[in-house]
Amino acid sequence: MEYNQVTPEVVAALQQIVGEKYVWTERDKRIPYGQDEGTGQPCLPDVVVLPATTEELAAVVRLANDVVIPLIPRGTGTGLEGGAVADSRGGIMVSTERMDRILEINEDAMYMTVEAGVITAVIQEEARKRGLLYAGDPCSGDCCCIGGNGATNAGGNRAVKYGTTRDQIYAIEVVTPTGKIAHLGKRLHKMTAGYPLEKIVIGSEGTLGIITKLTLRLVPLPPCTANLLAVFPAPAKALSLVTALPKAGITPTCLEFMDYDVIAVVQDWLKEKQPCPEGGAYMIIQLDGKNEDTLDEDCVTADELCRSLGAVEVFMADADKVWKARKAFTEASAAECPVAAMEDFVVPPDKLEDLLQSLKAIGAQTGVVFRGVSHAGDGNIHLDVLRRGFADEADEKAKITAFEDQACAAVYEMGGAISGEHGIGQSRKALFAKYTDPVALELMKALKKAWDPKCILNPGKLF
Ligand SMILES: Cc1cc2nc3c(=O)[nH]c(=O)nc-3n(C[C@H](O)[C@H](O)[C@H](O)COP(=O)(O)OP(=O)(O)OC[C@H]3O[C@@H](n4cnc5c(N)ncnc54)[C@H](O)[C@@H]3O)c2cc1C
């Protein structure tokens, strides 16, 4: 597809739509929009536009579609795969940051309608104040926004019990790539009336539409919560809990795995002694209960189960302490060594142990060192590949490429996918093309073409 450049006439037309104050062409203002939180190369959009309403945003999209200029939707830019970053073709970046109003909270029917730019933690807090829970919980919740969560189908620690962002959304308002305003999904508990288009837009990384409003499902806030820290002598024993716990009738809210390599790095970073033997592993188990009695019962069952699987210790953990250790992973591994690449593999939970073994073998064979933590309950593992042991940049690139290719092959072979929650963006396109069912890929491309004939919406992402 041939695209046109952003001309002074286009800038003037954008100013007409959203007002001069909200169209930024100055380089210093565009720089923060030139990258996300991933390891990809920065690239500036030609102009950043900040609409305040769906109508303004739709007018911007119609303009971009008429003049055939790439349009890059952006939430708060915490993505990790370059999805909210322009590519070398530049274009118009549309930020939803001014669309940050909570429109309705209905405590009785338990839903909330918000604009796309509302920060996720604000939604969680507004629900909490009313005794309700918004269950979406990406670790970046303090700084990402709900539109970005919808576009990436963000997961997080609680996905094992409550599902990903897609499961928290009843309905969305979307601006299509040709600038129409569509209302997809309804606040219903069942519906068999055509294709569930909202479910396709959610997770489409800004390639099929720009989400402007979302109606979110809320649930009662669980009255009691407990955090157990089970210490195992070896990763395999810890990971056997992933299938054993649900089989024992317990659905944890969170089930997080850390192996000794990560625990040691976190220990150094936090300067707090961790109770893990060398070569061992942690499983953090968070349980919710309707009351103290049922919660105690579940804690006893989980404790006994962990010990029967070989746990050397099971602590009733201090929530702040144990989650501080888990959440310190990113900073701790970056402090240990600069991170060259991040991985986000997902396999059926019962295959997690096999995957971990394979990844270790592939790492050793390709000369790649990584640190990994896992949302174990949903089979999702995050790796930080360390910039260590490479002779030079070419060596680093070759080894990481070999590692990623073999790792993705192993993941695919196990019935998994190359991304559990971070998405494909720009960084994972080649691997996505290689390790996706070819017919599924063909259908996805056909869908994109039907929705966005001029391919103006987030081109160069996914495909
Ligand atoms: C420290 C850290 C922890 C993280 N933890 C998690 C985690 O636990 N789980 C998880 O899933 N992710 C996690 N992430 C990744 C990231 O925070 C999520 O992907 C988040 O959903 C992105 O939201 P955002 O508002 O920053 O979106 P952006 O980064 O701005 O955009 C992400 C993608 O969505 C598109 N997009 C943004 N807004 C819209 C919209 N309104 N309509 C259509 N498309 C849009 C963009 O074009 C881009 O493709 C983490 C990131 C960091 C840095």
Describe this structure in words.
The chain has 463 residues and is α+β, with helices and mostly antiparallel strands. It has four domains: 8-98, 2-Layer Sandwich (Uridine Diphospho-n-acetylenolpyruvylglucosamine Reductase, domain 2); 104-220, Uridine Diphospho-n-acetylenolpyruvylglucosamine Reductase, domain 3 (2-Layer Sandwich), CATH 3.30.465.10; 224-329, Alpha-Beta Plaits; 337-423, Alpha-Beta Plaits (2-Layer Sandwich), CATH 3.30.70.2740. The chain is built from 17 helices and 18 strands. A hairpin with a 5-residue loop joins strand 8 (169-175) and strand 9. Helix 1 (8-18) runs antiparallel to helix 3 and helix 14 runs antiparallel to helix 15. It is globular and about 70 Å long. The chain binds flavin-adenine dinucleotide. Flavin-adenine dinucleotide binds at residues 36-37, 72-80, 83-84, 96, 116, 138-140, 144-145, 147-149, 151-152, 154-156, 205-206, 210-211, 330, 421-422, 425, 458, 461. It comes from Megasphaera elsdenii DSM 20460. Keywords: FAD, Flavoprotein, Oxidoreductase. Its cofactor is FAD. This is Putative glycolate oxidase.
Q: Can you tag this structure with a few keywords?
A:
463 residues, Uridine Diphospho-n-acetylenolpyruvylglucosamine Reductase, domain 2, binds flavin-adenine dinucleotide, Alpha-Beta Plaits, 18 strands, alpha+beta, 36% helix, 21% strand, globular, 4 domains
Short recap of the structure:
By secondary structure, the protein is of the alpha+beta class.
Q: Structural class, please?
A: alpha+beta
The ligands found in this model are:
flavin-adenine dinucleotide
Number of helices: 17
- Oligomeric state of this protein: single chain
Principal-axis shape: globular
Known CATH architecture of the largest domain: 2-Layer Sandwich
Report the mean per-residue pLDDT as an integer. 96
User: What's the structural domain tally?
Assistant: 4
Q: What proportion of the residues form beta strands (DSSP E)?
A: 15-25%
Radius of gyration: 23 Å
What is the class of the largest domain in the CATH system?
Alpha Beta
Helix content: 25-40%
Tell me the major beta sheet.
7 strands, antiparallel
CATH topology of the largest domain: Uridine Diphospho-n-acetylenolpyruvylglucosamine Reductase, domain 3
Q: Determine the N-to-C terminus distance.
A: 13 Å
What topology, given as strand order, has the largest sheet?
15-12-14-13-17-18-16
How many runs of DSSP E, i.e. beta strands?
A: 18
Low-pLDDT windows of residues: none
Domain FAD-binding PCMH-type: 41-221
Cofactor: FAD
Pfam family, one: FAD-oxidase_C
GO molecular function, one term: FAD binding
